[in-house]
Write a structure and sequence with these properties.
This protein is about 65% helix and about 0% strand. It is mainly alpha-helical.
Length: about 130
């Protein structure tokens, strides 16, 4: 026996399934990235072997920090900037139509896929140097 219930039409691939990104979505993304980078910065400062935050990150931007002359303020500033940019990138990512067609990006699964893809990208970028 066939069902007579009408199924809702699925949008075509590439058609936006989500609402447009509002200004508060960008603010939430930036705030989430900032908070996440504070947590990871504390991990780097107290658990990872030094001098990642105080020397390595400032040297990526041309600040001549050494273990004898570290630049912790510059390291934290650049680290926080990266966190905010990754939070904003996540908002753009979850609203991208092809991602929305593939999975529910506003979920734990979507966050994990985004985080892992960024980690893999960073790993291969650092190996290329």
């Amino acid at each position: 026996m066939q069902s007579t219930t009408a199924q809702p039409a699925r949008p075509a691939a590439g058609q936006a399934l989500r609402r447009q990104v509002g200004p508060w979505d960008w603010v939430r993304g930036a705030f989430g990235g900032f908070v996440g980078s504070v947590a990871f910065g504390l991990f780097m400062a107290f658990i990872m072997p030094p001098p990642m935050l105080e020397v390595v990150i400032p040297n990526l931007y041309g600040i001549g920090a050494t273990p004898a002359n570290p630049a912790p303020l510059a390291g934290w500033a650049f680290h926080q900037f990266h966190g905010v940019m990754l939070g904003i990138a996540y908002v753009a990512y979850v609203e991208y139509p092809s991602v929305a067609d593939w999975m529910e990006p506003r979920s734990l699964q979507g966050g994990l896929v985004h985080g892992l893809s960024r980690s893999v990208e960073e790993h291969y970028d650092s190996e290329a140097m």
